[in-house]
Automatic annotation (TrEMBL):
NCBIfam families: TRAP_fused. Pfam families: DctM. Residues 162-453 form the TRAP C4-dicarboxylate transport system permease DctM subunit domain. It comes from the Bacteria. GO terms for cellular component: plasma membrane. It comes from Candidatus Afipia apatlaquensis. The keyword Cell inner membrane applies. One of its GO terms (molecular function) is transmembrane transporter activity. InterPro entries: DctM (IPR010656), TRAP_DctM-Dct_fused (IPR011853). Part of the tripartite ATP-independent periplasmic (TRAP) transport system. This is TRAP transporter fused permease subunit. The lineage of its organism: Bacteria, Pseudomonadati, Pseudomonadota, Alphaproteobacteria, Hyphomicrobiales. It is found in: Cell inner membrane.
Length: 454
């Protein structure tokens, strides 16, 4: 979509993110950036596979089931009539639905093909799904009989060993060798805890069966705080962030930033900081922030006189602040809330001042750089008008207000993103002609969420 200061109507264009100068109208044209730039997608930046055909529809179906399970759990809708689902069963259902796709989306090595799925990745997919379902079927009995301490039957231990192995491989593929080498020694520690070379770090040693049972059946390892935070809170906020981007919020936030900050000294870089901050408040994702705001603001910064390397550095710093900026922060914030046994709203409120200081520091640095190099702002005639931009996306303000009220006043952090998403979709269907959702949009929405969950 395009936005100019003398035209409030959106023009349908190819879904390519860019920030260019329209030589005919002398206006800055801001296209909807969510699809990437010049055909470049997030999958290409992070070198992951784009699923097609039956695998894509499997991901869409698994994502829909994941969201419905989360809604059922958070709102106590009792989808399973006559059956009370344990939290641990719910966690394993989510693992069974999402974890197997790690091996389809993330290739095993740099040489692994991206245009097809090798047989060994399909084998890992099946092994992960089967072990998760097997453990889910036994987790209720494990809780009743205390298998995590008393010892589990051999078939359950076998399923646990498979889960342990595929988890480590999934960690390597998504986080790299450095993260795996940080985590793996701690998962193996119980097996050699009494070794003399550990010195003051010696502890009570466990057998392989005992360690496996503890990892996959207790609430302290695989089913610990991270999966609890993901299942209870993170899913809803990820759904909300994706819905915002797919209703055109990225374009709205970036145009607001250009309208408010574009004319200042070094305005292009300040727009970059402001836009990345606004987008980060809603997405909490560094990569999507760079792809959304960076592909627009970096070309404008270069045209305004900023060095290419400096423009890229400003975008990187501004996008990194996404994990600090409430109300939708990085995943670590949800883990902090779960670990400290406080509400996510308390964590978000505590992050307001650090996030504000972070972006204030960036503003001051950019302003000093612009002053030293005599870098002017963008002429007002080339920028969107504030009022025109607000008229196009006023309902985003109401949606964000609802989210904040639900978080701070009603203290319903697990419900807030779902209410905000429903309101957003209703208002978008009623008041937006260009971004109304179709069946194809819903399918894409589920696919994007699925990749994010994985």
């Amino acid at each position: 979509m395009s936005a100019s200061s003398d035209n409030t109507q959106n023009t349908a264009v190819a879904p390519v993110a860019a920030a260019t100068i329209n030589s005919a109208q002398k206006k800055v044209v801001f296209d909807d950036p969510h699809a990437g730039v010049g055909g470049l997608q997030e999958a290409e930046v992070t070198r992951v596979r784009t699923l097609r055909g039956g695998w894509r529809w499997a991901l869409v179906a698994a994502t829909a089931a994941t969201i419905l399970l989360c809604i059922n759990q958070q709102f106590t809708l009792r989808f399973f009539i006559g059956y009370t689902q344990l939290n641990t069963e719910y966690f394993y259902l989510l693992i069974a639905l999402m974890l197997p796709f790690t091996f389809l989306i993330f290739p095993g090595s740099e040489k692994a093909p991206l245009d097809r799925i090798p047989w060994y990745d399909i084998a890992l997919f099946i092994a992960t799904f089967a072990s998760a379902i097997w453990l889910m079927m036994n987790i209720r009995k494990a809780a009743a009989l205390g298998w995590e301490f008393a010892g589990a039957p051999t078939p359950v231990i076998a399923g646990g060993l498979v889960m342990w192995a595929v988890l480590m491989e999934a960690l390597r593929r998504t986080g790299g060798w450095s993260l795996l080498l940080c985590v793996l020694p701690f998962t193996l520690y119980p097996l050699f805890a009494e070794s003399s070379w550990l010195g003051p770090f010696r502890g009570t040693q466990s057998t392989l069966d005992q360690a496996t049972a503890y990892h996959v059946l207790s609430g302290e390892s695989l089913l610990g705080i991270p999966i609890q935070a993901f299942a209870d809170t993170v899913i809803g906020f990820l759904v909300f962030g994706t819905a915002l981007m797919m209703t055109g919020a990225g374009k709205f936030f970036i145009n607001i930033a250009f309208a408010l900050c574009g004319t200042f000294r070094g305005g292009a870089a300040k727009v970059c900081i402001f836009a990345s901050g606004l987008l980060g408040m809603m997405s909490g994702s560094i990569i999507s922030n760079v792809l959304t705001a960076g592909t627009m603001t970096i070309p404008v910064m270069k045209k305004s006189g900023f060095r290419a390397s400096y423009a890229a550095a400003i975008e990187a710093c501004a996008s990194t602040g996404a994990v600090l900026a409430p109300p939708v922060m990085g995943a670590t914030a949800f883990v902090i809330a779960q670990f400290l046994n406080v509400s996510y709203a308390e964590v978000a409120v505590a992050a307001v001042i650090p996030a504000a200081l972070y972006y204030l520091g960036l503003f001051m640095q950019v302003d000093s750089y612009a002053a030293r190099h005599n870098l002017a702002g963008i002429p007002r005639s080339e920028l969107p008008r504030v009022w025109d931009t607000v008229k196009e996306g006023w309902y985003y303000i109401f949606v964000i207000a609802l989210l904040v009220v639900m978080l701070l006043y009603f203290k319903r952090e697990s419900h807030a993103p779902f209410y905000a998403t429903v309101l957003l979709l209703i208002l978008n269907q009623l008041f937006s002609k260009d971004t109304r959702w179709t069946v194809a949009t819903i399918s894409k929405f589920l696919e994007v969420n699925g990749r994010t969950f994985v």
